[in-house]
Write a structure and sequence with these properties.
Elements: H1 2-22, H2 32-50, E1 54-56, H3 58-74, H4 79-87, H5 89-105, H6 113-126, E2 134-136
Antiparallel strand pairs: 1-2
Helix pairs in contact: 2-3, 2-6
Length: about 140
């Protein structure tokens, strides 16, 4: 009877644990609060890199990156998984293509650096997720 109780207890434990372990976490790119915030940082970086009249709010950007890392950790992602996502050449290329498309849709052209300044100033004026990471000189 003791063995039967142990087997039943073990079986119940496995049954209860099964749904938790069988549920896979989405890729970090599919977690909106992580992806969207990282995207805003990337766009802000592109703007400050191409517009001399706009500078980054470095401490705010670092704080933002720390927050999304903490969010990812809270969602169960390890530091190694986060690092792999951020350093992935595939993810960098995907983010770059997404950013180029977004900027083009908003009238920004790599051939016209002044469009980065115009867009950046508009984002700063709106205090958007991108704009709060930038400062007009």
């Amino acid at each position: 009877m003791r063995i039967a109780n142990t087997v039943i207890s073990a079986a119940l434990a496995c049954t209860v644990a099964l749904p938790v372990s069988a549920t896979a976490r989405p890729a970090l790119r599919d977690v909106p609060e992580i992806e969207n915030t990282l995207f805003a940082v990337a766009i802000a970086d592109a703007i400050r890199d191409r517009c001399d009249d706009i500078s980054p709010r470095v401490l705010r950007a670092l704080n933002t990156l720390r927050k999304i890392k903490a969010q990812a950790n809270d969602l169960g992602y390890s530091d190694e998984e986060i690092r792999a996502y951020v350093e992935s050449d595939t993810e960098k290329a995907r983010m770059r293509a997404k950013g180029e498309k977004f900027l083009a849709q908003n009238g920004v052209s790599y051939d016209k650096p002044e469009t980065f300044c115009t867009f950046g100033r508009a984002e700063i004026a709106k205090s958007s997720a991108i704009g709060v990471l930038l400062r007009a000189k």
